[in-house]
Amino acid sequence: MEACRNDFIARSYVMATFELYRRSTIGMCLTETLDEMVQSGTLSPELAIQVLVQFDKSMTEALESQVKTKVTIKGHLHTYRFCDNVWTFILQDAMFKSEDRQENVSQVKIVACDSKLLTQ
């Protein structure tokens, strides 16, 4: 299915939490699967929206409580933007470094927001 069509569920409901993780691989797969289930009549659009809202909350909680690794990021800041309390950074030639590992990437987009806003 087309990615544009898959967004109909995500855009059909205004939420109090950010939808940061829906563009991740797992979020896009979940949205595509829910879209297919709605299209086939297996799932109602309302239930699909509830699943996405729970996904947003669960991802936020899991990352907050289970991820303890600290990472240093260095790179050339190509673009930055602050809109609706959300920062977006695009880095080129970025290096991610943790205690035991280092990864280099040619370009990365980082989206960040105040975690206090996620729980409203």
UniProtKB/TrEMBL annotation:
The gene is BnaA03g46710D. The keyword Zinc does not apply. The keyword Transcription regulation applies. Pfam families: TFIIA_gamma_C, TFIIA_gamma_N. Residues 18-63 form the Transcription initiation factor IIA gamma subunit N-terminal domain. This is Transcription initiation factor IIA subunit 2. GO terms for cellular component: transcription factor TFIIA complex. It comes from Brassica napus (Rape). TFIIA is a heterodimer of the large unprocessed subunit 1 and a small subunit gamma. It was originally believed to be a heterotrimer of an alpha, a beta and a gamma subunit. Residues 74-115 form the Transcription initiation factor IIA gamma subunit C-terminal domain. It is found in: Nucleus. One of its GO terms (molecular function) is RNA polymerase II general transcription initiation factor activity. Keywords: Nucleus, Transcription, Transcription regulation. One of its GO terms (biological process) is RNA polymerase II preinitiation complex assembly. CDD domains: TFIIA_gamma_C (cd10014), TFIIA_gamma_N (cd10145). Coiled coil: none annotated. Belongs to the TFIIA subunit 2 family. Its main location: nucleus. InterPro entries: TFIIA_a-hlx, TFIIA_b-brl, TFIIA_gsu, TFIIA_gsu_C, TFIIA_gsu_N. SUPFAM superfamilies: Transcription factor IIA (TFIIA), alpha-helical domain, Transcription factor IIA (TFIIA), beta-barrel domain. TFIIA is a component of the transcription machinery of RNA polymerase II and plays an important role in transcriptional activation.
